[in-house]
Design brief:
With 404 residues, this protein is α/β, with parallel strands linked by helices. The protein has 11 helices and 19 strands. The chain starts with a strand and ends in a 15-residue tail after the last strand.
Length: 404
């Protein structure tokens, strides 16, 4: 097999992780990184010098890369969220395979537009946890019936983020940027994998993804941002599986993520940020440490683009459940509600300054254990929303849900 000729759009930030993966795959003879595009070359002189020494061309404009690099097979898009839609559309117009960094796009109407453009199903969305050993094992147990009938999937995580995280880019913590949808926040960026995993684990077969029928959500902010940093969500999927998802960036201490699948025969889970597995059914878990899921996600993309794999691990259409859940939960919340300052404190200094909501880890744990939203367990700053049917949701406007 000839190496796939790649272009990378977006070199800084998450792009550095893509570079490492592509270089590892290049060493294996699977890809050839031909070119990159990033307007901020002057901020990365060492990276540019390294690419120059290897003959990797650097474009300051992604459109120029798309138009002039005529021998490419595929591009990876590792750019800010508000750029995903138009960059993916441009790559599809060229007939390229696309590895699109998660989340795909913020809004359901954007997803519908891209699905319509992707007539040859060439886009893979980089929700790499779907390619991880523990998530695949959970799914296999589900599909084989080892857990019995699946009743509920529950997810928690408290991942603190500091001023440096929010100062790193003008779109961080925003709902809109220059009129473009962003919808940045834990469920729609850093912890998006966890919500997407719910849709994957509830799907009927090994390659199937579920979609929500009804969603409830409560969005909050402690930090003075346009978007949110605290979320509690609950929903019902087409399969009849219930889910509960509670995540945030507003605690001082990290609580590692936990994904728990509850079946009629017992429970199974992935915990400690994906490093551990367990179950109550006496099932044998794969031995840790697990292989790099980011690298494995790329390998699966290469197999797909080379024709060795029949379908993408996660196609654009496969992310419908994820996008419907986030959009529907925002509608159900009625916007983003401020947490009264008497319930949070600021800790740290400079770029390490963060926000800590009092007793939030306890609320997160209790809400998931009881399958309730924050407003249903008497959290003092919580506000009850309403359930939203999302089966026929076709459009949402973020400006309708912005408040300060």
């Amino acid at each position: 097999m000839k190496p796939l000729r790649f272009g990378l759009i977006g070199v800084g930030g998450i792009g550095a992780t893509h570079i490492r993966a592509l270089q590892a795959l290049e060493n294996e003879g699977l890809v050839q990184l031909v070119c990159v595009a990033d307007p901020f070359a002057e901020r990365m002189p060492e990276v540019k010098a390294r690419f120059d020494s290897k003959g990797v061309r650097w474009h300051l404009d992604f459109q120029k890369l798309i138009e002039t690099e005529t021998e490419l097979d595929a591009v990876s898009i590792a750019t800010p969220i508000p750029l995903h839609a138009r960059m993916t559309a441009a790559a599809l117009a060229r007939g390229l395979f696309v590895y699109l960094e998660k989340p795909p796009v913020p809004l359901i109407q954007q997803l519908n537009d891209l699905v319509a453009l992707d007539t040859r199903r060439k886009v893979v969305v980089g929700f790499q946890m779907v390619s991880s050993v523990p998530i695949i094992q959970l799914k296999r147990w589900k599909v084989e019936g080892a857990l019995g009938g699946i009743e509920s999937i529950r997810v928690t995580a408290c991942w603190p983020r500091y001023d440096g995280y929010y100062n790193r880019a003008p779109w961080s913590g925003r709902m809109l940027l220059d009129g473009e949808p962003v919808f940045d926040g834990p469920a729609t960026n850093a912890l998006a994998h966890l919500l997407h995993n719910i849709m994957y684990l509830a799907g009927k077969g090994m390659d199937d993804f579920d979609v929500p029928v009804e969603v409830e959500g409560e969005f909050y902010r402690a930090r003075p941002i346009e978007s949110y940093d605290v979320l509690s969500m609950r929903g019902l999927l087409e399969s009849g599986v219930e889910f509960h998802y509670s995540v945030n960036h507003a605690t001082e201490a990290m609580t590692a993520f936990r994904i728990e699948v509850i079946g009629s025969k017992g429970r199974a889970w992935v915990s400690n940020n994906g490093e551990e597995m367990g179950n109550t059914c006496g099932l044998t878990s794969p031995a840790a440490p697990y292989p790099d899921s980011f690298l494995e996600s790329y390998r699966q993309f290469i197999r797909f683009a080379s024709g060795e794999r029949a379908r993408a691990v996660t196609s654009l259409e496969d992310t419908r459940g994820y996008v419907l859940a986030t959009n529907g939960a925002l509608m159900a919340s009625g916007g983003i509600h401020n947490i009264d300052p008497k319930y949070w404190r600021v800790h740290g200094e400079g770029e390490n300054r963060g926000y800590d909501v009092a007793e939030l880890p306890k609320y997160v744990q209790r809400s998931v254990e009881e399958g309730k939203l924050f407003s249903e367990i008497n959290v003092p700053w919580a506000r009850k929303g309403h359930a939203v049917l999302v089966r026929s949701l076709r459009s949402i406007q973020l400006k309708d849900y912005i408040s300060h």
